[in-house]
Structure formats: structure tokens, C-alpha cells
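Request: Give me one sample?
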Amino acid sequence: MSDAARGRGLYLDDLSVGQQFVTASHALDEAQIKAFAAQFDPQPFHLDAEAAKATVFKGLVASGWHTAAITMRLLVESVPLAGGLIGLGGSLTWPRPTRADDVLTVHGEVTDVAPSQSRSDRGTIGISAETRNQRGEVLQKFTATLMVPRRPAA
């Protein structure tokens, strides 16, 4: 998204297929992983670094839901859609685990722009996004359909 667009909300009319964006970054550490897991995904490989060594992960990893939550925050802060990021559905995959000391950045693209046939004040966009670490490794793939308002008539 352009710097000019970041200063205001983007409407459906501002978006086009192929438009790309890169978010700000988020540095993750062991304390964040354990705090999230304790509240939302209390499994040993998220809570106990020593116990995690004996798992398929061979060490402490963040919950996939934690990676998804960080991704959402980065998207909200970096992709200023008018009316907010309103999801209508999507899919998530986690090809690699997220670990302490990873620095997450989301790289995405608009894959579809469609005005609503029944509601002239809105439409939908498709996005495809990858959450990557500081080495460029893809930790999460996310595709979604978002509802986006049309620009109000002058």
C-alpha cells in the first residue's frame, strides 16, 4: 500500500488485483509464547522449553493461533481498510513452526476485487498473505475474503 493510502482508509475502489503490501514487524520472545499458550493453548511444546525438546518440534514453539493473532495485528496496523478488516472466511496453514526470537512480517497481495451485486455500498476482496520470519521462511499462509466498503458518494 502506498504511503499516501496509509493516511486514510482504503475503499474497495482504491484496491486492485495484484496490489501488494508488506507490514511492519513483530519480534517474538519466549515470554510472549508462554503467556499466550498459558491462556489459549496450554500444551507442553508451547509452555515448557525442556519438555518441548522431546516433541516433534525439538524445542519451544508458538501456538499457530498465536502466529495468527500476531498476523492479524500486523495487518490491522499496516493495511488500513475503511471500516476495518472484516473477515468473511479464509484458510490458514502453518508450514513451519514459529519460534522464540523470530521476527514476523506479513507479505500479501490482493487476489480478487468484487463489488457486491446486491449491496452497492460494499464489495469483497481476496487476499493471500504469508507470515515470514527474519530469514524469509514462511511460517504461516493465510487466504481470506474481506468485506470492504465502497467510497461514499460525494
Q: What stands out?
A: The two ends are 24 Å apart (CA to CA). Helices lie at 3-6, 30-40, 44-47, 49-52, 64-78. The chain has one domain: 3-149. Confidence is low (pLDDT under 50) at residues 1-7.
